[in-house]
From TrEMBL:
Belongs to the thioredoxin family. InterPro entries: Thioredoxin-like_sf (IPR036249), TXNDC17-like (IPR045108), TXNDC17_dom (IPR010357). It holds the Pfam family TXD17-like_Trx. This is Thioredoxin domain-containing protein 17. It comes from the Eukaryota. Residues 10-131 form the Thioredoxin domain.
Amino acid sequence: MVFTDTEVIDGYENFQKRVATLEDKKSENDLVIFLFEGDGDANGESWCLDCREFEKVWKTVKTSTKLPDTGCLIRVRVGPKEKWKGKDDNPFKKDAKLKLTSVPTMIRWGTPKRLSGPDLLQTQNIMLLFE
């Protein structure tokens, strides 16, 4: 098994379904990182500037030898800008477990570890989520 970052989930309902599958099979050794990001346009670019900046940092992290041998990063798209910005009723914001306030946000599932905002744009901070 290898560390993967290819899974993409669109929307809150699909996120909930994916979490249910994780809860059914969870073991203490499973490493699951969720990256919450803005939806992409026709070219695949997110409306979120920080999300686009994160991609540059993630390329550096992915080539690091410090990534674990197993686990996954699952990208979760929170919706288009008009359903995120200034919308307190967005389900990702309302979810008591997630408590999302900004994108991108990276959460190590099953732990209190999370990064968002400028902290997520620093390689060393991201690496701390994997420890």
